[in-house]
Amino acid sequence: MAHQFFFNPYILDNLTTPARGFDVVQDISEPRLRMYITSRGVKTFFVRKRINGRDRRVIIGKYPDVDIEDARGAVATVLEDASKKVQIKRKKILFREFMQMYLKNRVHRSVGSYDKLVRSINHHLTGLFDKNISEISVDDIQETIDKIGGAAMAARMHELLQSVFRYAIDTGYVKNNPVLQLPKPEQNRRVRPLTKYGIRRLVESIKNYSDTIMRDAFLMLVYGFATKNQIFSMQWADLDFNRDMWNEQPLSDMAVVLLQDMPQDGYWVFPGRGHGHLTDPRLAWSRVVTDAGIPNLTMDDVYKFMVRHLVWAGDKEDLRTNMNELLEELFINE
Q1: Which residue, among 294, 334, 278, has the nearest Cα to 202 in the 3D structure?
Q2: 43, 15 in Cβ contact below 8 A?
Q3: pLDDT (tens digit, 9 = 90+) per residue, 38-97?
Q4: What is the DSSP string of 67-136?
Q5: Which terminus of the chain has a lower count of CB atoms within 10 Å, N or C?
Q6: Distance between CA atoms of 86 and 175, rounded to whole angstroms?
């Protein structure tokens, strides 16, 4: 159930962002009005409406671009418009053109993630590009899915196509979703192999690694409570050792000690080849995890392990305290 309170600028401006995913809050003055708060601090007004047996979230707009009173006033109109039956368009559209529309209006990702999705679409769905979306059959989709190598990618493309055809129904280009008639490809989920004992072996293996830049970068994956992309692209200018902060994120004591012992003579904290920062040192990482006896461990596994065991707190000092207590439990009070 969404947390309920009277929406006002002071409360909305100071809402605590979730550690990951999103939270939902509800307005007492207009109970149909709700708001998403993402882990990146984006706040979006929306309403819920059940249409054709399916629960839909209808976006009103982002706060503060949309004023609270304007959002309240828009609720009735938005719900009325959402209830109107979608007119089926007679004009045909190629799947390629519709995908461009879908990506523009429905996909909101970082640049790297967006580009990766486009590459996957261009690689796996080209067989559908020159077909009119209204004429694509269940067999066409099944044939496309069957040609994809790897169960995980096949499952992702199945989910994507299901979302694309839902949007095609919403916009009036098709009447039915053919993907619903197909079973989702089965995939064997990888069991993440990291335990508290494993993270200790990993840190010992990292400390024994000869390359100092790689060693410090890998240790920051543990001490920094951030993703590998965030860690590897750290800049000295973003660090404030007077407040033990990295931009707006607190640094653990172990991270501060590690960073202060490093030579601070460049732009990037972890420089790579050429003029850029460290990107994806797979070979070095493979050696470290093999030495630790966890050969299937990924760098993302480390981040997910640390944040899963971290007790989240909205206050930065409390969060920093929780970071230190977790690291102390893992590596000091063994």
Answers
A1: 294
A2: yes
A3: 888 889 999 987 765 566 778 888 898 889 999 999 898 888 776 666 566 667 899 999
A4: -HHHHHHHHHHHHHHHHSPPPPP-S--BHHHHHHHHHHHH----HHHHHHHHHHHHHHSGGGTTSBGGG-
A5: N
A6: 9
Place of tokens 């995939």: 187
Q: What is the mean pLDDT of residues 307-312?
A: 87
Q: How many CB atoms lie within 10 A of CB 43?
A: 20
What secondary structure does DSSP assign to 230-276, as a single string?
HHHT-BGGGEETTTTEETTEE--HHHHHHHHTS---SSBSSB-STTS
pLDDT digit string (tens) for 197-235? 999 999 999 999 999 999 999 999 999 999 999 999 999
Q: How is residue 144 written in tokens? A: 């496309």
Q: How many residues does the chain have?
A: 334
Give strand ranges (E) for 144-263. Answer: 239-240, 245-246, 249-250
- pLDDT of 88: 61
Q: Please choose, from the candidates 170, 174, 200, the residue with its C-alpha nearest in 3D space to the C-alpha of residue 49.
A: 170
The residues pairing with 249 across neighbouring beta strands, listed in sequence order, are: 246
> What single letter denotes the amino acid at residue 175?
K
Taking the whole predicted model, whether its pTM rises above 0.90 is answered as no
Are the beta carbons of 252 and 322 closer than 8 angstroms?
no
Q: How is residue 60 written in tokens? A: 């009103």
Cis peptide preceding 183, ω within 30 of 0: no
Secondary structure percentages of the chain, helix, strand, coil, to 5? 50, 15, 40
Token pair for residue 267?
């732009």
Look up tokens 């990291």; give the residue. Answer: 194
Per-range mean pLDDT, top range of 31-45, 70-84, 168-182, 231-245: 231-245
